């Protein structure tokens, strides 16, 4: 029975990750209906979806596999910091890479 409980717990967390990703992606989709200042293309939604899903899955792996609280916290902060830095670079180009936003 323990294997089934772990599977249900993992399935539940993956479902939460997918739901949160969809909710976050719906924000600019809804904003595009009311404002001409939000202009996302299909590529923007795909890129944001990949970034959010990979971050959510990375957090899931750390939470599932790391038992040491301090090390786990440091890894989670690094993952979230990477998400925010990549998102900012893609949005406005804070580092001046070829991937910067316009």
The gist of it:
The chain has one domain (2-92). It contains 3 helices and no strands. The model has no long low-confidence stretch (mean pLDDT 89).
Q: Terminal Cα separation, in Å? A: 53 Å
Quote the beta fraction.
under 5%
Largest sheet: none
> In percent, how helical is the residue content?
over 70%
Oligomer: single chain
The helix-strand sequence is: HHH
Return Rg in Å.
17 Å
Output mean pLDDT: 89
How many DSSP E strands?
A: 0
Number of helices: 3
| Total individual domains | 1
Transmembrane segments: 12-33, 45-63, 75-96
Keywords: Membrane, Transmembrane, Transmembrane helix
Task: Please characterize this protein's 3D structure.
Keywords: Membrane, Transmembrane, Transmembrane helix. The chain crosses the membrane at residues 12-33, 45-63, 75-96. The chain is an all-alpha fold. It has one domain (2-92). Helix content is 79%, strand content 0%. It contains three helices and no strands. It has helices spanning 2-34, 42-65, 69-92. Helix 2 (42-65) packs antiparallel against helix 3 (69-92). It is flat, with a radius of gyration of 17 Å.
């Amino acid at each position: 029975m323990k294997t089934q409980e772990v599977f249900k717990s993992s399935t539940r967390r993956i479902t939460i990750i997918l739901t949160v990703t969809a909710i976050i992606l719906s924000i600019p989709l809804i904003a595009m209906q009311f404002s001409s200042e939000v202009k996302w293309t299909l590529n923007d939604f795909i890129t944001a979806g990949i970034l959010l899903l990979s971050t959510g899955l990375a957090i899931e792996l750390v939470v599932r596999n790391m038992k040491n609280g301090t090390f786990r916290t440091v890894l989670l902060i690094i993952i979230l910091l990477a998400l925010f830095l990549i998102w900012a670079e893609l949005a406005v180009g804070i580092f001046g890479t070829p991937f910067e936003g316009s």
